[in-house]
Amino acid sequence: MFNKIKTMLLMFIALISFNATFALNNQLGNITIDDPWVRSAPPNAPILGAFMEISNHSDGDIKLLSANTNGYKRLELHKTVPQDGMMKMIKQDFMLISAHSKLTLKPGSWHIMMIKPNEVPREGDSVAIKLVFDNGLSKTIYAKVRKEGVMDHKKMIHHQH
Ligand SMILES: [Cu+2]
Questions:
Q1: I want to staple 114 with a disulfide (CB 3.0 to 4.6 A). Which of 36, 48, 91, 125 is the partner?
Q2: What distance in angstroms lies between residue 136's CA and the mean position of ligand 1's atoms?
Q3: Global confidence as pTM
Q4: What are the structural domains, with CATH classification, of the chain?
Q5: What start and end residues bound the annotated signal peptide (predicted)?
């Protein structure tokens, strides 16, 4: 009798877990990644920065827990913040993307730090980066290697006048 209840209880728990997984699966479909890019760097660069826009279209907050790729020692989640009158990159445990909002990763702000590449990618190359979120699911994006964003390019032209 007791065993029968126990079995039923386990089945019930399994069913709940299954439903939870299914719900989270739908939630991941509510994350979109726009304009992923890696800033081009000299062939001997020890680090590279990856940037993108992460939009959370769901009703709940989502955390980006880690980023992975092949050919690097490791990837870290960073935020550049002013500290003691200097801009410093601080390693973060996660990036929070609030419900129905967008987190922009850009130079001088949030970014994914790619540390010690086996080989620095060239301009025009695509780098596959796997993003792991706190709902246990992941998404692989392809970041194009390019120079600084358009805004900075305009600024540079402006300074020449
Ligand atoms: Cu960094």
A1: 48
A2: 24
A3: 0.75
A4: 26-147 (2.60.40.1890)
A5: 1-22
